[in-house]
Design a protein that fits this description.
Elements lengths: L9 H23 L17 H17 L10 H29 L11 H9 L14 H18 L1 H20 L5 H6 L5 H15 L5 H22 L6 H21 L7 H8 L1 H26 L4 H30 L26
Helix pairs in contact: 1-2, 1-11, 1-12, 1-13, 2-5, 2-8, 2-10, 3-5, 3-12, 3-13, 5-6, 8-10, 9-10, 12-13
């Protein structure tokens, strides 16, 4: 069996690219609003939110790799839950609280749903209850992440039963791809997006069981296929029904190529790109509120100067990413250090198995 790395730094580059794709997409969304530039550039970047699909594939890979030794060991469940909690909720709750204060003090900034008690409760726990609205716009993806974490927890409790349950969940997602449920809450719980978690786990199983052939070709095919899918969506002028599947499959090819190239020492990730990958979760959480605030100050200045649109666009993109980086450095990273337990191997009772130290770079962003 080929050696498998505990961490894949190349995924940091993938996270950075995926986060920037989402930022650029939302920049175009801001530019399209009539109260600002009313410039419909977003029709040329319909595929921008495909970065979210890449995140989901990486999540499937990372969770299975990080908890490979925990499958079928229920005594590891508490540690698994703690790791998932500390990674997702503390920084998310801080950003959520800031956004909620804005919506409560200035309702005109939102649509009204952000103040509904049911939406607030759902947003706090990242669980859809009565509807699929959320206070923090970009947090809709975190609901799906939490569903996946809960489903994977059954793999830790009982390996066979857990994978059967995951398989049934994926089958429901395939069914929903063909016949989407009319109920918005059900459509969230059985979203076709969940197939991407499965693609990621399959990729991890392949890497752990054999040497991946022609990794450069796989990376090239995946990249070309990913871009081609986006171009097709742009030409169509609207999201394509099966696009999410193609994004997932091509992202999986990219991930397979990256993992094999890295474990054979054939690629290296620049530090700045790896750093942006580490900061990608904070960037993702804060960039949309940041874009709204920056646009309110940038647009009046642009009306006076009338410089080319590329300048305010750059201000929005760079400013929102910079704020995300600051949040990562000043809040997220200290929180992770605060909640991180000492990485001391512990002999688990009645198993003789050593718990594996948790590796931060593998945490899904």
């Amino acid at each position: 069996m080929p050696k498998t790395l505990k961490t894949f730094t190349s995924f940091q580059a993938a996270r950075a690219i995926a986060a920037l794709l989402v930022v650029f997409y939302h920049c175009f969304v801001i530019f399209d609003q009539p109260k600002y530039w009313n410039c419909s550039w977003n029709k040329y970047l319909i595929f921008g939110d495909s970065g979210v699909g890449f995140f989901f594939v990486l999540s499937g890979i990372v969770i299975l790799n990080a908890h490979w030794a925990d499958r079928g060991h229920p005594e590891a469940l508490r540690t698994y839950v703690w790791k998932r909690f500390r990674r997702i909720y503390p920084i998310y709750w801080i950003v959520l609280a800031a956004v909620m204060i804005v919506f409560q003090s200035a309702p005109s900034f939102g649509t009204g749903v952000e103040r509904k008690p049911s939406v607030i409760v759902s947003s706090i726990f990242l669980v859809h209850i009565f509807e699929n609205n959320t206070v923090l716009t970009v947090a809709w993806t975190l609901y799906h992440e939490m569903m996946f974490y809960v489903a994977f927890a059954f793999v830790i409790v009982h390996r066979v039963f857990g994978f059967i349950l995951l398989g049934l969940w994926m089958c429901c997602s395939i069914y929903a791809l063909v016949l989407p449920p009319a109920n918005p809450v059900l459509s969230a719980y059985f979203s076709p997006l969940h197939l991407l978690f499965g693609f990621g786990m399959i990729a991890m199983l392949i890497v752990r069981s054999r040497t991946v052939p022609a990794p450069r070709l796989l990376l090239l095919l995946g990249t070309v296929g990913f871009i081609a899918t986006g171009v097709c969506e742009d030409l169509a002028g609207a999201p394509l029904p099966m696009a999410i599947v193609w994004y997932g499959l091509t992202a999986t090819l990219c991930a397979l190529g990256l993992m094999e190239l890295e474990r054979t020492g054939k690629i290296a990730v620049p530090r700045i790109v790896a750093f942006l990958g580490n900061a990608s979760y904070s960037i993702y959480l804060v960039h949309f509120p940041a874009l709204s605030v920056i646009a309110k100050f940038t647009y009046p200045l642009w009306l006076r100067a009338k410089v080319p649109l590329i300048f305010p666009f750059t201000v929005l993109a760079v400013g929102s990413v910079a704020l995300g980086v600051l949040v990562h450095l000043l809040i997220e990273r200290p929180l992770l250090n605060l909640f991180c337990r000492p990485q001391i191997p512990i002999i688990l009772a009645n198993t003789g198995r050593r718990s594996r130290p948790y590796s931060l770079p593998l945490v899904p962003r």
